[in-house]
Write a structure and sequence with these properties.
Distance between the termini of chain A: 49 Å
Helix content of chain B: 25-40%
Low-confidence stretches of chain A: none
Helix content of chain A: 25-40%
CATH architecture of the largest domain in chain A: Orthogonal Bundle
Radius of gyration of chain A: 16 Å
CATH architecture of the domain at 426-467 and 620-775 in chain B: 2-Layer Sandwich
Oligomer: heterodimer
Largest sheet of chain B: 7 strands, mixed
Low-confidence stretches of chain B: none
Structural class of chain B: alpha+beta
Distance between the termini of chain B: 74 Å
Number of strands of chain B: 29
Largest sheet of chain A: 5 strands, mixed
CATH superfamily of the largest domain in chain A: [2Fe-2S]-binding domain
Chain lengths: ~150, ~775
């Protein structure tokens, strides 16, 4: 069936099957930032935004997305690079395979929560697994990023 | 330049961001599956449902008839020459016990047939139509009963061991050995106390986020090109040559960015399948392991059972250690003979004053998934056993376990008979332990504090060591050349798997050449063009390949000076190179690196480049101390991580932020091993831990706070004084957390993981014993 949606600000029409998952559609459309780490909705690597909210694209059927707006890391590249600099300062991107999904969720958190404390950050990002960093460097990067953004706003 | 004082270093010992960071954080298409051609055949494996069986009939006709199917390959198509998938220097210590597809299947998940087709759907459909009639055989599932069991995992006549590792396929033995010094029985007999215990560590999955994956194609010359997520490209070239029975010059291996390895990708887990398809069909092919395959048919940590005896006098002087390790290599012997060695060689030497030691081992074949290399590589298991035994000794002596260690730990200048007779030339283990105690507030918190809410917090300690490369074996080489405008290209064969070796080797080169990071391009591995490197494993890259960088850069500096002098018409003895220009000290005249770079491209008869190779006769150990603080729910036995203080001596820290993240990441993985991770089989050998639903790795809510500091020694044989960091960091959590549970509750867990059930049962038993004593 033909599905029409907006991907990273551009209108797209795709022919999908009833069982086609969004993750595969996005990778086929060239959004290679979207990664698969588990197939069982445990790892968070395939996180994208649907209408601005974080979703696991491995568990969303493409057929149901007619008229929706989808954002991948490619669609927020500048913002990703900005936060990514903080991540890289800590050396906390490491292998980088989980970085796109993680960054999508961090940026979603920045939109959704106002000045979250550590517990709120940890809870928000609990579904984003990382095997390289032990998570501490990611947290340092987030807190420094938040500090700088706060400074820029005030 | 390697003799610069650490405080004078401008780039090394600084937290430089990784050179690939901008691409990684913006999600660029840089990993294997991102760059694979769209027309690759999809390759999948039909896997055995039985732990041990012989394929009696295999009918592929219906599967081959599915539209879009290119081929279905079975054992009948495979060369009958055995090889190993272990990525090790030739001749490999791991026995040659595999063929691509075998008539005998040896674990649930072993490959029975290869299906390749145009689409995933067609391949999945065809897989169901491959009809296999198995003769089901009784498996060997208990590794304690494997040795000399009448059921043989490898009865075949063409099984062979290339090295004298004590292997005997007629006894299910993958390796056997004894290593000792002094009379251990006499020393233990003379001790006031001897702790005699058995510890058991389970198989664990590396669980790198990117599963195993490879794509293959034939190039202009009909050669097999292999793009793979591997830690060992040069070994993969040999392995594929062996597996396909083709000359090695027919194989080229390229490593793109890798989504983690941790040792998993030191075994060529998936490369042979698409390679075989491409070689047979001439068409490009790709295999992407599902997470399920990566958890059931991969290369996890060796399960080990370790019998430890530690003897000491009344004052707590440890006089002798005896360790017997039984290691389970599973269906195949990858890394079996070598991992077991570290369980003794990198645990016993932590105690520097022993009068005698003995380390003996058996490595056995069983009908479970083959084990492989995992960060720590046997040291992790051995250190859990020996450190736990020392913690039990402390309890028997009624002594603070940190004080017991202070009396006995290895110090700089001490000989380590159990570590191949090497002497520590750099060791800050004493400072590591002292600092870790300060960080956690040991003296205030030991042994435990009742929190008054049904919970008790305990602290526990462990020490660790590892090596820096395999002495006398591992070889790293690099070459570096000067290009237009004087920029450098650094060609390395070491494999960055996310750890940052492309960055830290560039840092070293920039430090040697007095230039900026951005003046040097670093090239990833391509076996056709990169200089040989055994690969990134055994904690070798910083130390071994780092020294090759230093050597190559020293030579290049000299050549730049000579060339500059030549162009200026003066003597090379009179010039100096400051990184930007060569100056004639007599006249003050100079020529820039840029001009030299451009001049060598015109009327030139000698390339301006240098190469260096390095292999070390020693493997200087990094050291560390780890202290865990955990909270235990007295009602349920649930263990929660509160705090972890780790202090590492990796010599000079080449990149403080990367070394810190390595340490934090290793500790988090170690916490997973200690508390959660377990590969569970049913009585028929089926692996239940086949998804991230069952095989739980720590999330950010499970690791507590992890704090890392460095106490550096200076390793005189290492680049800028550096030793390794990559593996040691996983070794302290299991024994330290176990000790914290012990100090909080009195419960001693000798089999990982430390689950709530085990702690609860232990507490119940202690309470029963106490009430019986009262009666």
């Amino acid at each position: 069936m033909e599905v029409h949606f907006v991907l990273n600000g551009k209108k797209r029409s795709v022919d999908v099957g009833a069982d086609t998952v969004l993750m595969n559609v996005l990778r086929d459309l060239g959004c290679k930032s979207v990664k698969c780490g588990c197939e069982t909705t445990n790892c968070g690597l395939c996180t994208v935004w649907i209408d601005g909210k974080s979703r696991l694209s491995c568990s969303v059927l493409a057929a149901g997305l007619d008229g929706h707006e989808i954002t991948t890391l490619e669609g927020v590249e500048e913002e990703a690079a900005e936060f990514g600099r903080f991540l890289a300062e800590e050396g906390a991107e490491q292998c980088g395979f989980c970085s796109p999904g993680f960054i999508m969720n961090v940026l979603a958190m920045m939109r959704e929560l106002e000045d979250p404390d550590i517990d709120e950050i940890q809870e928000y990002l609990a579904g984003n697994l990382c095997r390289c960093t032990g998570y501490m460097g990611q947290l340092r990067a987030i807190r420094k990023y938040m500090e700088v953004r706060k400074g820029a706003q005030s | 330049m390697n003799t610069k004082d650490v405080s004078e270093l401008k780039i090394v010992n600084h937290p430089v961001p990784k050179v690939d960071a901008p691409a990684l954080v913006t999600g660029k298409a840089v990993y294997t599956d991102d760059i694979a051609p769209a027309d690759c055949l999809i390759v999948k494996i039909v896997r055995s449902p039985y732990a041990h069986a012989l394929i009696r009939e295999i009918d592929t006709s219906r599967a081959e008839a599915v539209p879009g199917i290119e081929c279905v390959l079975t054992y009948k198509d495979c060369p009958d020459k055995r090889f190993t998938l272990a990525g090790q220097t030739y001749p490999e210590a791991s026995p040659y016990d595999r063929i691509i597809l075998d008539q005998r299947v040896r674990f649930v998940g072993d490959a029975a047939a290869i299906v390749a087709g145009e689409t995933e759907e067609a391949v999945r459909k065809a897989m169901k139509l491959v009809k296999i009639k198995y003769e089901v055989l009784e498996p060997v599932l208990d590794f304690r009963k494997a040795k000399d069991n009448p059921i043989l995992v490898h009865p075949e006549d063409n099984w062979k061991a290339l090295c004298p590792v004590g292997a005997d396929n007629r006894r299910n033995l993958c390796a056997h050995g004894v290593n000792e010094e002094g009379d251990i029985e006499a020393v233990l007999a003379s001790c006031d106390y001897v702790v005699d215990r058995v510890y058991h560590t389970k198989a664990n999955q590396q669980t790198m986020m990117e599963t195993f994956r490879t794509y293959t194609y034939l190039d202009t010359y009909g050669r097999l090109n292999v793009v793979s997520s591997t830690q060992v490209p040069f070994h993969v070239r040999r392995i594929l040559g062996n597996a396909l029975d083709i000359p090695k010059h027919k194989v080229r291996v390229i490593k793109p960015r890798i989504g983690g390895g941790f040792g998993a990708k030191q075994t060529a887990v998936c490369e042979v399948y698409p390679a075989f398809v491409t070689w047979k069909t001439g068409k490009p092919a790709k295999i992407i392991y599902t997470r399920e395959e990566a958890l059931t048919a991969s290369s996890p940590r060796h399960e080990m059972e370790m019998h430890v005896r530690v003897g000491a006098d009344k004052e707590g002087h440890i006089k002798g250690i005896d360790l017997y390790t039984l290691s389970n290599t599973g269906a195949f012997g990858e890394h079996g003979p070598t991992t077991v060695g570290l369980s003794g060689h990198k645990s016993i030497p932590l105690y520097g004053k022993t009068e005698a030691f003995r380390f003996s081992y058996d490595v056995v074949y069983t009908n479970v998934m083959s084990a492989g290399a995992y960060r720590g590589y046997g040291a992790t298991q051995g250190i859990f056993a020996v450190e736990s035994a020392v913690n039990e000794l402390a309890q028997i002596l009624n002594m603070d376990p940190t004080v017991l260690r202070e009396k006995n730990l290895v110090r700089e200048g001490m000989a380590m008979p159990a570590y191949y007779g090497e002497t520590t030339r750099s060791c800050a283990l004493d400072r590591c332990l002292a600092r870790a105690k300060e960080m956690i507030g040991w003296d205030e918190k030991y042994p435990c504090r009742d929190m008054g809410n049904g919970k008790v917090r305990g602290v526990g300690v462990a020490m660790a060591m590892q090596g820096s490369g395999i002495s006398g074996v591992d070889t790293g080489s690099v070459s570096i050349k000067v290009n237009d405008d004087g920029y450098y290209s650094l060609m390395i064969g070491a494999t960055d798997m996310g750890t940052g070796c492309d960055t830290i080797l560039t840092q070293m080169a920039a430090e040697c050449l007095d230039c900026r990071m951005e003046d040097i391009l670093v090239h990833g591995v391509d076996t056709d063009i990169s200089p040989y490197d055994c690969g990134s494993y055994a904690s070798s890259t910083t130390y071994v390949t780092g020294m090759a960088v230093v050597k190559a850069c020293e030579e290049l500096r000299e050549k730049i000076c000579q060339r500059g002098a030549e162009y200026m018409g003066c003597s090379a003895d009179d010039v100096e190179f400051d990184g930007e220009k060569v100056t004639d000290l007599k006249t003050g005249k100079s020529i820039s690196r840029k001009d030299i770079g451009n001049k060598v491209m015109c009327f030139n008869n000698e390339v301006l480049s240098a190469s260096g190779a390095y292999s070390s006769p020693t493997s200087p150990p990094p050291f560390m101390a780890g202290i865990a603080e955990v909270e235990i729910d007295k009602e349920t036995g649930t263990v929660e991580m509160i705090d972890y203080a780790a202090v590492v001596d990796c010599g000079t820290v080449v990149n403080p932020s990367l070394a810190r993240v390595q340490t934090e990441g290793g500790i988090a993985q170690g916490i997973g091993m200690a508390l959660f991770e377990d590969i569970v089989y049913n009585p028929k050998g089926k692996n239940y831990s086949n998804s991230l639903m069952q095989y739980k790795i720590p999330s950010r809510l499970d690791v507590g706070n992890i704090r890392v500091e460095f106490e550096s020694s200076y390793e005189p044989t290492g680049p800028f004084g550096a030793k390794s960091i990559g593996e040691i960091v996983i070794n302290t959590p299991s024994p330290a957390i176990s000790n914290a549970v012990q100090n909080a509750t009195g419960v001693i867990i000798r089999e990982l993981p430390i689950t709530a059930e085990k702690v609860y049962d232990g507490m119940k038993k202690l309470a029963e014993n106490r009430s019986q004593q009262k009666v």
